[in-house]
Amino acid sequence: MGVRAGSLVGRVVGALVLAVVLLVVSTATAIWWTARQDAQPASDAIVVLGSAQYNGVPSSIFEARLEHALALYEEGVAPVVVTVGGKADGDQFTEAESGRAYLTEAGIPEDALLAVEEGVDTLESMRAVGAAFDERGWSSAVLVTDPWHAMRAERMAEDAGITADSSPTRQGPAVQTRATQFRYILRETAAYLLYRATGESIAGAPGIG
């Protein structure tokens, strides 16, 4: 009996390990697949996920997102661009404020820009964007972020009541090398699974929290 019980336990443990491995692999594959997509339907707004800024100047990751949002706006994807993100302790500017200033200088009219200056991670920012959309009667958005961040951003936006598609930027440090891409996919896999399991987000490198 003891041998049989031990064999059964071993099979159960093996099955659980296999299930976890399959879940991780399938999630990573879905993140990779979503990263390769580029949806640009006509929407209420283009939402640019914030990233680091330095004294009001967007980081290279953030700048790549803003330039892509500018191109989408000029193509007529949406009449408004929403910049998103709060500020860290000690910062003078929010990510949203820095993004709005960048796009204003790039030629987008001020009345076509909305800064949602809340959130220290994607989840907080998306909830704030959802509230801003509710106030204005908006329902649809094209999200601009890094490719590996797109699937989790879409899920969080949809959970905030937004019909979301993503058009990831193909420029910037997040897509420069295969090693960088692999590292981002691993981190996003962990972040996505944590969110689906707990409903919570994690803080991390720009675009990860």
TrEMBL record:
Listed CDD domains: YdcF-like
Pfam families for this protein: DUF218
InterPro entries (alphabetical): Cell_Envelope_Assoc, DUF218, Rossmann-like_a/b/a_fold
Superkingdom in the source lineage: Bacteria
Organism expressing this protein natively: Geodermatophilus obscurus (strain ATCC 25078 / DSM 43160 / JCM 3152 / CCUG 61914 / KCC A-0152 / KCTC 9177 / NBRC 13315 / NRRL B-3577 / G-20)
Signal peptide range: none
GO cellular component: a single term: plasma membrane
Name of this protein: DUF218 domain-containing protein
Residues annotated as domain DUF218: 44-190
Transmembrane region(s): 12-33
Keyword terms: Membrane, Transmembrane, Transmembrane helix
